């Protein structure tokens, strides 16, 4: 087994786990319940870790994780209402116009 990802947020780690499993990569979570030990252990030691079970899948898994976690888009300014929109928005959140 080899660690491919770690994050403090359970939802983010679980989402990455689901993405990898959708690519037929067998993974497991570690430290899933370690947050209750914060104070006794370092907060970083309680982060949820995602491990690839077959090390032969590691390179492909690492590539998928990198592509899934990088922010490739750019924020954009709506030409209709002037509202600033994040890269994740396909339409203006304020007026529902499409970016131009």
TrEMBL record:
Name the record gives this protein: DUF2007 domain-containing protein
The record, for InterPro entries, names: DUF2007, DUF7577
- The residues covered by the DUF7577 domain are 76-98
Q: Which domain of life is it from?
A: Bacteria
Domain DUF2007: start-end pairs: 1-67
